[in-house]
Structures are given as structure tokens and as C-alpha cells.
Amino acid sequence: MAQRTADNYMTQAQEESHSLLGEARDQCDQLTREARDRANDLEQKTRRRHREATAQLETKRAGLIVEIDEMTDFIANYRTALEQHIRRQTNHLDGVTEPAASFESRSAAI
Questions:
Q1: What's the pTM?
Q2: Which residues of 17-52 are buried (b: 16+ CB within 10 A; e: fewer)?
Q3: What is the pLDDT of residue 38?
Q4: Which residue, among 98, 71, 103, 100, has the nearest Cα to 87 in the 3D structure?
């Protein structure tokens, strides 16, 4: 009888052990799936944010290139107008008369 009681306890302990191991494996699998899902979501969000940031930077870069081109044109036009103005002023001081120029051509040069 003692042997049978001991065998019963051993059988119950083994069944409980198998049950606990099964539950632990199931819980481990569930946690692993959740972790993978979270990692995938995070990776997708990170890639999306990277694409958005890259697109914003490309747009900003294009705008800055246009602004640089506009400033470069302005500088070239301003330099030309300034050189013409200085030349006219120098000629005026030297007493050299320049041919009569129309008002429109002078204002366009400046």
C-alpha cells in the first residue's frame, strides 16, 4: 500500500510536471510571438519615419538649391549694375560725358 501511494504521488508529480512544462512552453511561445510582433512593428515605424525624414530633407534641399541659384543670379546682376554705376560716376568725375541713355536702361542696370 505504501508503494501504491508512493507510485500515485510520483505519477501525479510527473503529470503536474508535464502540465507545468507545457504551460511554460505555451507561455514562452506566446511571449516570443508578441516580442517578434513588437519588433516588426517598431522596424516598420522606424523605416516609415526614415522615409519621411529623407523626403523632407530632399524637399528642403531642393528649396535651398533654388534659393542659392536665385541669390547667385542676384549677386551677378547686382555686381554688373554696381560696376556700371561706378563706371558712370568715374566718367562723370573725369568729365567724360556718356551718350544719352534712356531712363529705362539706367534703371534696369541698377
A1: 0.54
A2: eeeeeeeeeeeeeeeeeeeeeeeeeeeeeeeeeeee
A3: 97
A4: 98
Given a cut of 80, whether residue 101 has pLDDT beyond it is: no
DSSP structure class, residue 95: T
Q: Which long-range contacts (CB under 8 A, 24 or more apart) does 102-109 make?
A: 109/80, 109/81, 109/84, 109/85
Q: Which residues contact 91 (CB under 8 A, 6 or more apart)?
A: 97, 98
User: What does the pLDDT look like over 66-83, one tens digit per residue?
Assistant: 999 999 999 999 999 999
Q: How far, rounded to the nearest angstrom, does the alpha carbon of residue 69 sit from its chain's CA centroid?
A: 24
Cell of 28: 514562452
